[in-house]
Amino acid sequence: MTTYLEAEANPQRNTGSIRLYDEAAFAGMRKACQLTARCLDELAGLVAPGVPTQVLDDFVFDFAMRNGALPATLNYRGYTKSTCTSINHVVCHGIPNEKPLKEGDIVNIDVTLIVDGFYGDSSRMYPVGRVKRAAERLCEITYRSLLLAIEEVKPGAHLGDIGAAIQDYAEAERCSVVRDFCGHGVGKIFHDAPNVLHYGRRGEGAELKPGMIFTIEPMINLGRPHVKVLSDGWTAVTRDRSLTAQYEHTVGVTDTGCEVFTFSPGGLDTPGIVLDPINL
């Protein structure tokens, strides 16, 4: 049975209950998420062939310090970097290092900044130089699946509606949906209830209520959906080494629909990827 709790009246830890945030919290999330979105905007000018992902990580740390924020991943459960950089067949949690990006790579950069106790969580795909059409198409499909999922977010809908929107679209495009990782509640806790699956059936799962805040972050593969985690304990890769892509937004359920906190202030939600002008 799903339980819902007023966020401010309950402990700052994941209890399994879904928190309902008030307008003051929504304002706090706007501030944190827009700072994260600005950081991702500025990264677009840094991603290029020959640039090590450690340079991108250093930028995120410096950006956070300049803006009175903290990178949420730094020292989180032993993770030692300020961001995650996942390249080509890396599904998520790729660890920045000194290896340079190569022409034709695609890289997901996942940033979460803490501002006044609120967590702003978002990620985008970045092409490295000129990329093959298959990689560009995968990024298009992944971002469109996220937009379709966001359209489902409204009071009275269910978490299963979100997953079904992603799964139906991605599989119709002959791609697969990663099932080992999911979106999550967020606010004053990094990873909170509910889990937001990127596959499912309409009408199933917890009902969406005003005040809920969570991420939607589909991971879509060109090949099969299966993944494995490498020996570092973090890096998740496709088992068949097929290309994978991910986009992530943080959203809040309002009285009338949905607010997306992490839209790019510079219109760079898909940097370097031009979406075909078709109606969703």
TrEMBL record:
GO terms for molecular function: aminopeptidase activity. SUPFAM superfamilies: Creatinase/aminopeptidase (SSF55920). It catalyses: Release of N-terminal amino acids, preferentially methionine, from peptides and arylamides. Gene3D superfamilies: Creatinase/methionine aminopeptidase superfamily (3.90.230.10). A divalent metal cation 1 binds at D110, D121, E248. The keyword Phosphoprotein does not apply. Binds 2 divalent metal cations per subunit. Has a high-affinity and a low affinity metal-binding site. The true nature of the physiological cofactor is under debate. The enzyme is active with cobalt, zinc, manganese or divalent iron ions. Most likely, methionine aminopeptidases function as mononuclear Fe(2+)-metalloproteases under physiological conditions, and the catalytically relevant metal-binding site has been assigned to the histidine-containing high-affinity site. Its EC number is 3.4.11.18. InterPro entries: Creatinase/aminopeptidase-like (IPR036005), Pept_M24 (IPR000994), Pept_M24_MAP (IPR001714), Pept_M24A_MAP1 (IPR002467). Removes the N-terminal methionine from nascent proteins. The N-terminal methionine is often cleaved when the second residue in the primary sequence is small and uncharged (Met-Ala-, Cys, Gly, Pro, Ser, Thr, or Val). Requires deformylation of the N(alpha)-formylated initiator methionine before it can be hydrolyzed. This is Methionine aminopeptidase. It comes from Aureimonas altamirensis DSM 21988. The gene is map.
